[in-house]
Structures are given as structure tokens and as C-alpha cells.
Design goal:
Structural class: alpha/beta
CATH class of the largest domain: Alpha Beta
Shape: globular
Bound molecules: nicotinamide-adenine-dinucleotide
CATH architecture of the largest domain: 3-Layer(aba) Sandwich
Strand order of the largest sheet: 3-2-1-4-5-6-11
Strand content: 15-25%
Length: 311
């Protein structure tokens, strides 16, 4: 079936709003659902048919009529918030996912792409980590594993054509800097631009695989076009790792501040290292294109223009 109409849950969020923009640019019609818990409606492109709805609401099924593909991105996803509220985490990430998958089944959707996370590898010690080596620790990671299991069951029992994507640390303009504890890159950039001392949790030696949001969207488009992705799980990272301190120094050099960070006690439930084995995604013809330097420069320009100048 030709894909024309696409629904995104979490459309007002960081990845969802970029994806909406990209899909519209490719000529698709886009419907967006978001309860605006952390999302921002003005980030949603104007031509998206937008509904402020909760993914746990069974009546969302009425929005899935004539939809051929669904990207399920809505989630409670700040690890420390999830640690503080395991019940709501499970409710949104597990029951909410079941409700979205059920709506997809009822509407006979022909492609379902589900956002998972590198958090599934929190306890792993093999690097780079392949899709097989799952070892979730935190409540967030456990909820994403349960969501994965649900997608697998919908695929098995109802032939729902699902693809699971394990994003590593996605960054770029609009990364959610409003969280209780914002992602490190946004937090560093905002505070250094304001000439404040950013906080590093732990020693700064934790290493992360950072992937630019446009590279993720390249893979999203590939999923729509390549049926080999159905029933598969893919790691989406850059395949390179940088310590938090290295990233701090890069940003500091770009902004030329010389400001020293404040070190605070490490956060619970976080992996020491993440590094994606992206061999499987590469086999589909995908490769990450954006260097960390270029991605950071774009993030700095956005934060300077949109965030700091308005505070
Ligand atoms: N950004 C990353 O680095 C990263 C890494 C791994 C996985 N992920 C996953 O990718 C997806 C998108 O992440 P993001 O960075 O864009 O996050 P985000 O927080 O910017 O977007 C999530 C959106 O979901 C919405 N939402 C939350 N609960 C909802 C509910 N009950 N009903 C409807 N909408 C709801 C929020 O309002 C928000 O707009 C999430 O599933 C996340 O777990 C992201």
C-alpha cells in the first residue's frame, strides 16, 4: 500500500517535531498527537493536523483512519523523572504503547515504527553493543523493554508490521532543555551562553554515543521505503563515543568562555558507556553524516537564537 498519511505520537517533542517537518518536506501528510506534557505546540509545523490528546486514551483510534504509517515517539523519558515515578512511567510507556499498537491494529496500519532507547543496554559491558545484548536497569529502560515486547507480540499475533528503533543520545536544535535535568549538551550550551557554571553529574568520564537528529530522520524515511525493516530492531547511533567532559570542552572552545563546570554526585540509573553497533542499520544503506562539531554548531545557533535571547 502506498504511504501518504502518517501519524506521529509525541509530535510536539524534539524528535517528533523534526520528523514532522521532514515528512512534510517529502510530500507526506502528517497527523500529530501529543498531550503537551513536555512537548511544545509551537514546535509543530503549521501544516500538521495536530491533536492535543493522550496516547492512553482509547478514543485516539478515531484519528488513525486512513493512516498508513505510524511513528510512536510519545513517552515519559527523562530518566530521573521516571525513577521518581515508576507507576506513571509504566502507565505512559507500556499501557500507552499498547493503546497505540491497538489503534494501529484496528486501523490496519501498514507500517509502525516504535521508538525504543539505548537505555536497554544500561547494564551491558560489550562495546559497541549490538541489538541482541539487552540489559535494562532503570524504570525507564524496563518500560521500553516492555514496549518492545508488546510490539513483538502485536507483530506475532496480529501481523502488525512493526520496526523498533533504539536511539542513542539524539541531539540537535529543540532538544528538550526544559526537563528537570536537561540533556547535557543543551544544559552546557545554555549555561555557557549565559556565562553560568554548568553542572556535570559524576566525574564527566561517562561516555555517550551522540547522533544528530537529521541522521535519525534519514533512517525514519528508509523504514518507510524499505520493507526489509519490518519485524526488525535497529540501533541508531554514530558508532563513536565521547566523554561528557570532552563534549563540555568542545562547547567551551566553540564559545570561548573558559568557564569551569561544577561537579555533582552522579545520577542513578545511568550507564557509564553507550556505544552503538550500527552494522545492522548500515546494511540497510544508512550512515550517519553529521559530525559532532557541525551538530553542536547547529545546536548552539538554535539555542542562541531561540532560547537564550528570550530568557
Ligand atoms: N532524544 C533522545 O536522545 C532519545 C534517546 C533514546 C530514546 N528516545 C525516545 O525517542 C522518543 C522521542 O524522544 P524525544 O527526545 O523527542 O522526547 P520529547 O520529550 O521531546 O518528546 C516526547 C513527547 O511525548 C509527549 N508525551 C509524553 N507523554 C504523553 C502522553 N501520555 N500522551 C501523548 N503525548 C505524550 C510529550 O509531550 C513530548 O512532546 C521517546 O520515545 C524517547 O523515549 C529519545
Amino acid at each position: 500500500m502506498k504511504i501518504r498519511n502518517i501519524l506521529i505520537t509525541g509530535a510536539a517533542g524534539f524528535v517528533g517535531s523534526h520528523l514532522a517537518e521532514r515528512l512534510l518536506g517529502e510530500g507526506y501528510r502528517v497527523t500529530g498527537i501529543d498531550n503537551l506534557a513536555t512537548g511544545v505546540q509551537k514546535q509543530v509545523p503549521k501544516s500538521v493536523r495536530f491533536f492535543k490528546r493522550d496516547i492512553r486514551d482509547p478514543s485516539i483510534v478515531s484519528l488513525f483512519g486512513n493512516i498508513q504509517a505510524v511513528f510512536h515517539l510519545a513517552a515519559k523519558n527523562c530518566i530521573s523523572d521516571c525513577q521518581n515515578d515508576p507507576v506513571e512511567t509504566t502507565d505512559i510507556n507500556v499501557r500507552g504503547t499498547a493503546n497505540v499498537l491497538e489503534a494501529c491494529r484496528k486501523a490496519n496500519v501498514s507500517r509502525v515504527i516504535v521508538a525504543e532507547s539505548s537505555a536497554l543496554y544500561e547494564g551491558c559491558t560489550q562495546y559497541p553493543t549490538s541489538e541482541e545484548e539487552v540489559c535494562p536497569q532503570s524504570f525507564y529502560a524496563q518500560s521500553k523493554l516492555a514496549a518492545h515486547a508488546l510490539a513483538t507480540a502485536y507483530q506475532r499475533y496480529y501481523r502488525l508490521p512493526c520496526t523498533s528503533l533504539r536511539y542513542f543520545n539524539v541531539y540537535g536544535p529543540r532538544q528538550d532543555y526544559r526537563r528537570t535535568i536537561p540533556p547535557a549538551m543543551s544544559a552546557f550550551i545554555i549555561q555557557l551562553l549565559k556565562r553560568q557554571r554548568p553542572v556535570i553529574y559524576g566525574t564527566g568520564q561517562k561516555k555517550r554515543d551522540f547522533i544528530y537528529v537529521d541522521d535519525i530522520n534519514d533512517f525514519h524515511l528508509l523504514c518507510l521505503k524499505d520493507r526489509r525493516s519490518i519485524g526488525q530492531t535497529y540501533n541508531l547511533g554514530s558508532g563513536k563515543k565521547y566523554s561528557i567532559l570532552q563534549v563540555y570542552r568542545m562547547i567551551d572552545q566553540m564559545l570561548q568562555t573558559g568557564i569551569k563546570p561544577i561537579f555533582k554526585r552522579d545520577l542513578p540509573g545511568e550507564a557509564q558507556v553507550t556505544l552503538a553497533d550500527i552494522g545492522k542499520a548500515r546494511k540497510l544503506g544508512w550512515k550517519p553524516k553529521t559530525t559532532l562539531e557541525d551538530g553542536l554548531q547547529n545546536s548552539i545557533e538554535y539555542i542562541r537564537r531561540v532560547v537564550v535571547s528570550h530568557q
